[in-house]
Amino acid sequence: TPPESIRNFCIIAHIDHGKSTLADRMLQITGVVADRDMRAQYLDRMDIERERGITIKSQAVRMPWAGEAGTVALNMIDTPGHVDFTYEVSRSLAACEGAILLVDAAQGIEAQTLANLYLALENDLTIIPVLNKIDLPAADPDKFAAELANLIGGSPDDVLRVSGKTGQGVEALLDRIVAEIPAPKGDAKAPARAMIFDSVYDAYRGVVTYVRMIDGHLHPRERIQMMSTRATHELLEIGVSSPEPKPSTGLGVGEVGYLITGVKDVRQSKVGDTVTTARTPATQALPGYTDPKPMVYSGLYPIDGSDYPDLREALDKLKLSDAALVYEPETSVALGFGFRCGFLGLLHLEIVSERLSREFGLDLITTAPSVIYEVTTDAGAQITVTNPSEYPDGKIASVTEPMVKAAILLPKDYVGTVMELCQTRRGTLLGMEYLSEERVELRYNIPLGEIVFDFFDQLKSKTQGYASLDYEPSGDQASDLVKVDILLQGDKVDAFSSIVHRDKAYAYGVLMTERLKKLIPRQQFEVPIQAAIGARIIARESIRAMRKDVLAKCYGGDISRKRKLLEKQKEGKKRMKMVGRVEVPQDAFIAALSGD
Ligand code: GTP
């Protein structure tokens, strides 16, 4: 297809604003999916995505659209909608010339949409503002059209109104894409350059790499080269998805499609990398490539220690489809053998642990998420800490922690409450803006460590679910941080160590000691529970020694009941961990680590 007859676009939308439904309607209206084959959320392949209603992996689909200017190939590139995947979003946007800004006509714009809109503007994309769900009785398109026009300029009349559900306005939207989004430009004679915007592991075909051709042409059977590593592969298959994969005789300037080389690991086909031909390689890679960098670390431990080899195998497999996942073995006094894993963010962590339990049947304990601290000791040693229990005990010269710029969108009535929340989380207000009469954007510089600790849930509950949050890294900052250890009968329980601001150390110590007192059953002896900074005890509770015999509960005769109780106790013992002389039920660890 010549570039003049191609339009590459994506849809920017907040979760639940109806991106998948609109995509479904487009597939149907352009005829690439027959009505009888239509199923909801056609493009979301992974079960986990469909169940949770979130899109994790982007995909591209090609749809022919016959308009006034003849038939045009529309390439719709799907973008993930969550903060953890900003880099993937930015690469998807870089593969497009235009974006549909899709906003629920009953909700208005959200923080996530705003963040992705800014990314799209940075990439010079043409924006088509669209209000969705106008069939809803609660829709207020006039109000939100004004909000959108206010945000991106232009008149409220330019804002298209559609319903992905009924199909109303969708044809007009397709016509507008053709009319307004520029055709791709590139040098057909130059050495091939294709940008990877997604790479997906497929159990049968190996890695499927989605690319946008910038210059030149790629053909099946030729050798291609990844410009970041210079690794070469044979191009076994090249084609387009519409939406099922269709092999073709090659891809030229402006086209969007997929490549298969037989590699089995997405790390060999990285998002953002440039693909060229091995025979006449391009000299300059496309701009914008970076390696995914983990932001949040957590320890994953099998509840049943004998599952450790299975956990290793499962992580090795997951890695093939998840270029951002990193892990290394780790041991914990309290939890045994496990892995310290790095994630892009909390959702990424949640997805990985859910896949480990769902696809691999593993029961895991996840330790409290930690960010990356850079510690300089008095002796001048530089230590990177991703596990609080490894925080150096001696004198510290300085510590830095990662900061983020957070944007929170909320109804104006909640501004006070949310500012208070941000203040207690050590946030610094950067700015406040009214998007409309009722909706406000708050911008904060805030430690990532405070956000990974339950911030989002707090924000939601304090605003009845009306606030939305987005953030991006804003560098490291020196802070007055200390490590609080938790001791059981004088022994450190490494899984409970935490790095907190000095002003919050006492509160954390009290919280954890009180919580553990409730969770750990009485033993034959008294067990002190202490919180300490170095050698200084800052909080203390104790569990009194056990007096009662378990069997005392069974009044006399009933032997079978007694036996049952003994067996149950034995069963429970199996899931006990010893910390020094203290028996701690596995459940207590889980509860203490997950409580709020
Ligand atoms: P994520 O994949 O989570 O980002 O969500 P999404 O933006 O793809 O939203 P999705 O298409 O899954 O729609 C979210 C909900 O809104 C679903 O319950 C849809 O049925 C509903 N919905 C989507 N479009 C419309 C619409 O035009 N009208 C009405 N009434 N409901 C819609």
From TrEMBL:
InterPro entries assigned to the protein according to its UniProt record, in alphabetical order: EF-4, EFG_III/V, EFG_V-like, EFTu-like_2, G_TR_CS, LepA_C_sf, LepA_CTD, LepA_IV
Binding-site residues, GTP: D16, H17, G18, K19, S20, T21, N132, K133, I134, D135
Pfam families the UniProt entry points to: EFG_C, GTP_EFTU, GTP_EFTU_D2, LepA_C
Protein name: Elongation factor 4
Topology in the lipid bilayer: Peripheral membrane protein
Record-listed E.C. numbers: 3.6.5.n1
GO biological process: positive regulation of translation
Gene Ontology cellular component terms for the protein in this record: plasma membrane
Function as written in the Swiss-Prot or TrEMBL entry: Required for accurate and efficient protein synthesis under certain stress conditions. May act as a fidelity factor of the translation reaction, by catalyzing a one-codon backward translocation of tRNAs on improperly translocated ribosomes. Back-translocation proceeds from a post-translocation (POST) complex to a pre-translocation (PRE) complex, thus giving elongation factor G a second chance to translocate the tRNAs correctly. Binds to ribosomes in a GTP-dependent manner.
Superkingdom: Bacteria
Compartments in which it is found: Cell membrane
Keyword Cell membrane listed: yes
SUPFAM superfamilies found in the cross-reference section: EF-G C-terminal domain-like, P-loop containing nucleoside triphosphate hydrolases, Translation proteins
Family of the protein in this entry: Belongs to the GTP-binding elongation factor family. LepA subfamily. Belongs to the TRAFAC class translation factor GTPase superfamily. Classic translation factor GTPase family. LepA subfamily.
